[in-house]
TrEMBL record:
It comes from the Bacteria. Residues 81-286 form the DUF4349 domain. Coiled coil: none annotated. Keywords: Membrane, Signal, Transmembrane, Transmembrane helix. Residues 1-19 form the signal peptide. The chain crosses the membrane at residues 264-292. This is DUF4349 domain-containing protein.
Amino acid sequence: MKRQTVVAYAVAGAVVALAGCGTEPDSDAAAADSLTPQESAAVDRAEYEDADAQDDSAAVDDEAPDATGVLTQVTSETFDREIIYTIGVDIATEDVQEASRQAASLAHDAGGYVADESTSAERSTVRLRVPADQHADVVGELQQLGTVLDRSRSTEDVTQDVVDTQSRISSQRESISRIRALLDEAGDLSDVIDIEAELASREADLDALLSRQARLADLTAMATINATFTLSDPDTSDEDEGEQAASGFVAGLSNGWNAFGDGAAVALTGLGAALPFLAFGALVGTPLAVWARRRRPAPPFQAPLSPPAA
């Protein structure tokens, strides 16, 4: 009973000190130490959810007092910009499979890798992941593999997300440390159960934040290049250019001969297609014509007219 009375006085004293010295840097920690395990866990949880509800600009304060009370600038400008690069390029080439192999080699030489690949006889699509600071060089070398048909580039600045995630990870780790300290001091079984449940929830939140941090780190460290190679036919284009350039008597004679050959081929094709029908008509029509001729009655006999008398 005496020990409980001392604890009660200590809690009351901590509350009074917190109300009178709200601007002291260590007042929050002193108040947390004087609360019961359940109350401390509830306060930490509320603080974290409140921080999670704030917008990105509030995640990193523009002006934050340090331990000496001096205002210091803590903005995203303090950090290097974190950019996600995504590039798309469509290239026409004479050998899509060879172009895909060279693209993979370029990615490996730059310290990257092939994330995905789909290749057919006339088309190949590869997704390359290369270091962000080398993506421009890799794209420039890819363009040398053929004729560029299309190119796109998009960027996304996630600096604020990176800073916000790091800040929340630090806060969550501190919160977990406080809860573990409360767990060591807990005596009742019900308190232990409640604190362990809260600790498990905080650790799950921390794991989610760490996963998000790793994802952002991967997206900003490695640029994504989506390269599509399509088959081009230089022989056909050369022939078309040659036909357009040809002119004069020889060109006319050649075109006329080609037209005559095409016409003769069409006529012979039609004759070959009609010949079976003509043969069938001859086999069936000839007997019918003979039979019809025999069935026709003979014309009546007429005596020759005698010449008139003189």
